[in-house]
Specification:
The complex is a heterodimer of chains A (419) and B (160). In chain A, helix 7 links the parallel strand 7 and strand 8. Chain A has 419 residues and is of the alpha/beta class. Chain A folds into 2 domains: 153 residues, Aspartate Aminotransferase, domain 1 (Alpha-Beta Complex), CATH 3.90.1150; 253 residues, Type I PLP-dependent aspartate aminotransferase-like (Major domain) (Aspartate Aminotransferase, domain 2). With 160 residues, chain B is of the alpha+beta class. Chain B has a single domain, classed as Sufe protein. Chain: A (Alpha-Beta Complex). A 4-stranded antiparallel sheet of chain B has the order 3-2-1-4, with helices on one face. Chain B is globular. Classes of the chains: A alpha/beta (419), B alpha+beta (160). At the A-B interface, helix 12 of A face loops of B.
Amino acid sequence: MNITQVSLKSDFISNPDWEKIRADFPILKLKVDGKPLVYLDNAASSQMPQFVIDRLVRYQTTQHANINRAVHYLSEIATMEFHNARCKLQQFINAREDREVIFTSGTTDSINLVMHGYGRKFIKAGDEIILTTMEHHSNIVPWQMLAEEKGAKIRVVPITDTGELEINEYEKLFNERTKFVGLIHVSNALGTINPIKKMIDFAHRHGVPVLIDGAQAAPHLAIDVQALDCDFYAFSAHKLCGPTGIGILYGKAALLESMQPFKGGGDMIASVTFEETLYNTIPHKFEAGTPPIAAAIGFGAAIDYLTAIGIENIAAYESTLLDYATESLAEIPGVRIIGTAPQKAAVISFTIDGIHPHDIGTILNQDGIAVRTGHHCAQPVMQRFNIPATSRASFAFYNKKSEIDALAAGIRTVQKVFL
Amino acid sequence: MHSNSLYQEVILDHNRKPRNYGKLNPASHHAIGHNPLCGDRLDITLQVEDERISAVAFEGESCAICKASASMMTTAIKGKTRSDAEMLIAEFRELATGKLDINQPHHLGRLTVFSGIRDLPTRVKCAILPWHTLQAALNSVSNVSTEDTSNDLQAVSSQS
């Protein structure tokens, strides 16, 4: 990679220059209605640094062709770069082998792949699937569809008032019918970091495989799938400074090999006759059709970029932002933070007494401040806290404290409007 | 657009002190409107006598835009005939989606304070939900969706 573009210096690893890193993101220079953009909706989607944009342009201008097919120059380059991207992802999550990394269109697609590939083959009538109240809809709905089709049952882990999973209740849900666990690593609605290692170990003692939805965890935490010993791990590129339309499913090789394909088509076959089709080996068995090649290569570049900064550095810096934001919001009368677990990623959901989140979002937007308002595709969480919706500020490593000051000032403006 | 121009005093006032808030009992027509995107829920009851809306009430959980729109709607349609109400529904929808030329003759009166919503596409549904629900109540169709909100707004009505 071009090191200068990520401001990599000899002392960088221990002491990143966050102002300089911020300058890598051209979109952050935008003005909204004359006001500087304050982008605090990173949990929905993060922004892309010039390094990744340039990589997409370079691929598209000098390297593009279809992959795994032709023998010509461009096809070989594109195939190699696509493979390199897979290897970068493998290293990023410390998977044993690159074939354990399947490119999907994103976390939702990854979870659906497991539901169709594993669930439809191995889950039977009367079996039980454990999920948590904290799950994003993408890790609820596919399992409901499966449960309906198979006559299986979904059991749900409750959460506490601070927004933590009730681990004792989780452990009580296991019985001989438990066949699968789906678990969110970091809650998109609450910011809670769940103790997944402990939960995976417990499930494994009952011989139950575990899928981790890592969409909100991968941008903030170092992921080591071997240390976690999770069976599946899913996340998307666009929350990691990469393009939309691409993500991965990590799965243990033996499990992936035992599964049935999700989508049929080109690339996923070894041979096809009208009498019989033999499926390709993993990961190709699960990558039917021409993949989003440019997006995958952009994903690889985003991983290079984040790795150069260091996920640990990112986590440490974001934690200072979270602390500062939590203090700043907590001291505003009428503001209530939803989700106060001791272990949190840089996400703050909040409500303001007497003011609907959509009104908050619209008025903050007038100051150039982008937050998410709504149920965050986590309606069971909203029901748990007996609220229709929240406003959510979510931070990335390119945010700065002055933007949190702008948010706090914006909230006071909202309160003045509704005084 | 500057959202200040949307959060005008008249809207804030109706949000603070919604008119015709509550539930009619008995009611000749009833519908519940729901916006799954934000969880907003609106319950509208009507008393229609001889094709005229003699009484109307609403209640529910919603944002200020939706609540003010509902409140102002009830004051606008009370005492009107069914066909007058239907004309207002059509005109309000055109206003909110930017299709109405407010310089041409119309019947919306003060409801034009909502004209700014056209520049906030994500908020258009908030303003339209009460009108959508009113139509469902008037027509007593069991499941209704409008052409430009077909995926996100649902209104269920019942006639007693």
